[in-house]
Amino acid sequence: MDLDTWVSLGALLSVGAVLIGYMRASMRDLKDDINAARKEAKADNERLREEIAAEIGVLREHVDRGFARIDGRLDVLEQRTYDIKPTG
User: Fold this and answer.
1) Would you say the C-alpha torsion 77, 80, 82, 86 has a positive or negative sign?
2) How much is the pTM?
3) What is the rounded CA–CA span in Å between residue 67 and residue 30?
4) How far apart are CA 70 and CA 63, in angstroms?
5) How far apart are CA 19 and CA 16, in angstroms?
6) ∠ at Cα 29 (25, 35), nearest 5°?
7) How far is it, in rounded angstroms, from Cα 43 to Cα 15?
8) Cα radius of gyration rounded to whole Å, the chain
9) Average of per-residue pLDDT across 79-87
10) What would the pLDDT profile of 14-72 be if each residue is shown by its tens digit?
11) What distance in Å separates the CA atoms of residue 74 and residue 66, rounded to the nearest whole number?
């Protein structure tokens, strides 16, 4: 092999080493970005859970009041049923 072949081979190896280094640095940056996004998503999920829990609490109070009203009306209706005297 002559000198030009060795120079070309050395240049190719150098370019390959640079590309490998660039790819590793890019992967490291990507991992860092993914970790930041994961932390943000966890914080958003926790905030949404708290909001949903609060909304469920409000809805539960509303529903409980509605059922209490229905129970009261059913008690009155049941009492009226017993007050009806059969004729005939």
Assistant:
1) negative
2) 0.52
3) 53
4) 10
5) 5
6) 145
7) 42
8) 37
9) 66
10) 999 999 999 999 999 999 999 989 999 999 999 999 999 999 999 999 898 888 888 87
11) 12
